[in-house]
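Fold Annotation — chain and its backbone

Encoding — discrete vocabulary of local shapes
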Amino acid sequence: KMDDDDDIPQLSSHTLAALQEFYLEQQQREGMKTSQGFNQYSIGSIEEDWQLSQFWYSDETALSLAKEAVLAAGKGGRIACVSAPSVYQKLKEQDGEDFSMCILEYDRRFSVYGEEFIFYDYNHPLDLPENLLPHSFDIVIADPPYLSEECLQKTAETIKYLTKGKILLCTGAVMEEQAAKHLGVKMCKFIPKHSRNLGNEFRCYVNYASGLD
């Protein structure tokens, strides 16, 4: 009979090595999770899902943005994280502080955070739960998932609905004009970094006197 192996696509040794390395890393990560009394709030506890255009910030960036949000929100303040889960996770690590928060996110894996999780699809910017009152957050920190004017414009509707005034936006440098147009925000000096290098230069934009300059 014919040799069946002919139909099986062969992976190059390079691809195989890369795959093995990837699986090994995953196993190590899983191992670390169990051995370290795994912290469900740490960055990386939920893996990036590239199909959802998710890219986590580096630890330092997430911490800087979380601290900025806490300062901007003030004592007893409320912080909304729109599509910015790594900042939310840093805020969770600072629990016990005098602020509250919620996360609006398309990725339902974040529903592990219970009542603070609100399913959010930027295509339906005002499709929000009734108990999420307009202008009920001292600051909204947002990172629209795609670098397109449509995505920014729709996310902007959500941001404007939620915020009492303060906005902290993270998006590509190429979006500077649209960010000013839709949200009245200006670019800060602070450069957000991601845990993986992205092809696009990222920047932060605010509409208040922030600590990011």
The domain at 50-206 is CATH 3.40.50.150 (Rossmann fold).
